[in-house]
Design brief:
Layout (H helix, E strand, L loop, with lengths): L8 H9 L5 H7 L6 H13 L1 H13 L7 E5 L5 H9 L4 E6 L2 H10 L1 H5 L3 E5 L12 E7 L8 H11 E11 L8 H18 L1 E9 L6 E8 L2
Parallel strand pairs: 1-2, 1-4, 2-3, 4-5
Antiparallel strand pairs: 5-7, 6-7
Helix pairs in contact: 4-5, 8-9
Length: 225
């Protein structure tokens, strides 16, 4: 954002060197925590961009859902993956959490039938919400959220605690930085795998989805006990 001048010739020259954030940059910034009109636009992009829809549907397929599973998605955005989960679990239940009320609102509109029949719960908040779900879920997953998490070890410790014995975690990621590369995706896969292992998840594996301009990766693990 452009900063206001604090007066004086030196301050004025310093401000002249700064440039206002472009509209594109403002929209990109919204993907961390969407809010306001641009946040609603970011949610629409998440819901309709082909690569995003492909990542979500692919991740849900990798979860290997059963009809009666209980699933949680953190950073659920506008509800694209949750919609696929509910379709795959006719007798199951899903929980979506997101720290953006704008995203919770968009997911609620998309998934109103699941809310009405009690198969879906949506909550505004962060990973602290997992503390109330010890041993509750067959699957816990996220799609392009991990890059915003400051402490992967703490995150996956919470995820392991929220899983039932034998439950599975899945974390998908596709680099969206300027000039991304497959190596960027694989480096993140390594970080995720190390954090999952430190949390006690086992049977780790990494899957790759060819997309343009770079592939998406998904790291999966299982709670053993």
């Amino acid at each position: 954002m452009e900063r206001a001048s604090r007066g004086g010739a030196g301050a004025g020259r310093a401000d002249d060197r700064s440039q206002p954030m472009t509209v594109r940059a403002r929209i990109v910034a919204q993907f961390r925590q969407p809010h306001g009109p641009l946040g609603r636009l970011a949610g629409a992009i998440m819901a309709h961009r082909p690569s995003n829809r492909a990542r979500n549907s692919w991740t849900v397929r990798l979860l290997d859902l059963h009809p009666e599973d209980h699933v949680l998605e953190f950073g659920c955005g506008p509800g694209v993956a949750l919609e696929a989960c509910l379709a795959a679990m006719p007798a199951g239940r899903a929980v979506g959490i997101d720290h953006s009320p704008v995203m919770i609102g968009q997911a609620a509109r998309r998934l109103r039938a699941g809310l009405a029949d009690g198969r879906l719960s949506l909550q505004a908040g962060g990973l602290e919400l997992l503390d109330g779900y010890n041993g509750a879920f067959d699957r816990v997953f996220s799609v392009n959220v991990v890059q915003f998490l400051p402490d992967l070890d703490a995150t996956f410790a919470k995820i392991r605690a929220a899983l039932k014995p034998g439950g599975r975690a899945a974390t998908s990621y596709m680099p969206r930085t300027r000039n991304p590369s497959r190596e960027d995706a694989l480096r993140m896969a390594g970080r995720i795998s190390r954090a999952m292992a430190a949390a006690g998840l086992v049977d780790l594996r990494t899957e790759e989805l060819p997309l343009t301009p770079v592939p998406a990766i998904c790291v999966l693990g299982r709670r053993a006990d």
